[in-house]
Design brief:
With about 325 residues, this protein is an alpha/beta fold. The protein folds into 2 domains: about 210 residues, 3-Layer(aba) Sandwich (Rossmann fold), CATH 3.40.50.1100; about 100 residues, Rossmann fold (3-Layer(aba) Sandwich). Helix content is about 40%, strand content about 15%. The strands form 2 sheets. The chain has a 6-stranded mixed β-sheet with strand order 1-2-10-7-8-9, with helices on both faces. Strands 5-4-3-6 form a 4-stranded parallel β-sheet. Helix 2 packs across helix 6, helix 8 packs parallel to helix 11 and helix 12 packs across helix 13. The longest helix is centred in the middle third of the chain and has 15 residues. The relative contact order is 0.17.
Length: about 325
């Protein structure tokens, strides 16, 4: 039996991503696309790195958060509420500060100290508790029902996914057509947005840690399912279940899925620092880990884009 997505599930299109780009353009950075060239990461392919680690708040997440908030006709006095492993919460807190709104952020106990510090710096009301993102989300939703704040879901909301898709739109304008684009996956907001933009042409390869494989497991099973969460990138890629929007897009457009181990992630993280002096958190280096560890082997001359999607870590832990 084939998977039936939730009734009336809306999937963003290139037109929705164009609209999102216009909506958020004065609020987000155009991040660099750095050509690593042939031989980078030890592969005989033409590598381009999209340095979204240099985005406001240290990850791609403000794209979706700004689009979600700026799409609203009216905002509640109680402000914004979100659950996050850290990066999305930092983005929502950043958005709230820039737009003069309140923000209440729920993070699990595994959230990295660097991410908690950034949340506090942005002035959000911070709630720490729960074993993982799923438990933080449950707590945030109970609180949202009491306050009426606008929920900014980390990855499974139409406006959030469309906002994340602006990264692919921007990269296409910077680097031209790519054969393949490698993207790390947690709950799926980024891979969903990228897939929505690249409905044809560029091949999308979803890269996940072996110990946090929500999309890989869903594609294998034919429907979203719960997975165990662990590993060095669990604070940013540790969703128990892939988002419905991302899964529907990935399944319908035959997104490839590969897994990487923690060692490959840490080697990719060190490579970014040693070769380029770029600080990336483990989740931010996970897409590159597919090349470093051999989970994805491009052919000679293949034009490969790699999204470096987050930098919220203690720099002293990288080198």
């Amino acid at each position: 039996m084939s998977y039936e997505p939730p009734a009336l599930l809306a999937l963003p299109t290139r037109a929705d991503i164009d609209a999102a780009a216009a909506r958020i353009r004065d609020h987000v950075r155009v991040t660099p696309a750095l050509r690593g060239g042939t031989g980078f990461a030890g592969v005989d392919a033409d590598i381009t790195l999209k340095l979204e680690c240099l985005q406001h708040s240290g990850s791609f997440k403000p794209r979706g958060a700004f689009n979600r908030v700026l799409s609203q006709v009216e905002l509640p006095d109680s402000g914004l509420i979100a659950a996050s492993g850290g990066n999305h919460g930092a983005a929502v807190a950043y958005v709230a500060r820039k737009l003069g709104l309140r923000a209440e952020i729920f993070v699990p106990e595994i959230a990295a100290p660097a991410k908690i510090a950034r949340l506090r710096d942005y002035g959000a009301t911070l709630r720490v508790g729960g074993r993982d993102y799923a438990e933080a989300l449950a707590a945030s939703r109970e609180r949202q029902r009491a306050t009426g704040a606008l929920e900014i879901h980390a990855y499974d909301a139409f406006e959030v996914v469309a906002g994340q898709g602006t990264l692919a739109r921007e990269l296409e304008r910077q680097a031209g057509p790519l054969d393949t684009l490698l993207v790390a996956v947690g709950g799926g907001g980024l891979v969903g947005g990228i897939t929505a933009w690249h409905a044809q042409g560029t091949r999308i390869v979803a890269v996940e840690p072996e110990r946090s494989r929500a999309l890989n497991a869903a594609l294998e099973r034919g429907e979203p399912c719960d997975v165990d969460v662990g590993g060095v990138a669990a604070d940013s890629l540790g969703a128990r279940r892939i988002g419905a929007i991302a899964f529907a897009l990935a399944q319908s457009r035959s997104v490839a899925s590969v897994l990487v181990d923690d060692d490959a992630i840490l080697r990719a993280q060190r490579l970014l620092w040693s070769e380029l002096r770029i600080v990336a958190e483990p989740g931010g280096a996970t897409a590159l880990a597919a090349l470093v560890g051999g989970a994805y082997r491009p052919h000679a001359g293949e034009r490969v884009g790699v999204v470096v999607c987050g930098a919220n870590t203690d720099p002293g832990l990288v080198s």
